[in-house]
């Protein structure tokens, strides 16, 4: 964490200027509200951190690169993919490149 803002977390520089870290934390807490950890999703490259959660009404995977390199992830048909800020990613096909954290809503 950097800065002299909210408890040196750098989440908010001033009341009208939240940082990207703020938006990432906000989306994570909304997306995983009421979540129960259910394990590592099957068949995920070992170079990816991957956690599966059961959230009321859906399953959510949180996935990102172990070493800062991009790796391919096969996603189940009908999944919705969000970046770490909660922006819906336009994905065609069943493969996505993963580097930074993504959220996969699995149907």
Topology diagram in text:
Blueprint: H1 20-31, E1 36-39, E2 48-55, E3 58-65, E4 71-74, E5 80-83, E6 95-98, E7 102-106
Antiparallel strand pairs: 1-2, 2-3, 3-7, 4-6, 5-7
List keywords for this structure.
single chain, mainly beta, 35% strand, 5-stranded antiparallel sheet, two-stranded antiparallel ribbon, 107 residues
Radius of gyration: 15 Å
Say how many strands there are.
7
- Overall outline: globular
Q: What's the helical proportion of residues?
A: 10-25%
Counted by DSSP, the helix tally is: 1
Low-confidence stretches: none
How far the N terminus sits from the C terminus, by CA atoms, comes to 35 Å
Main sheet summary = 5 strands, antiparallel
What percentage of amino acids are in beta strands?
A: 25-35%
Q: Please identify the oligomeric state.
A: single chain
Strand order of the largest sheet: 1-2-3-7-5
| SS-based class | mainly beta
The average pLDDT score comes to 89
Helix-strand string: HEEEEEEE
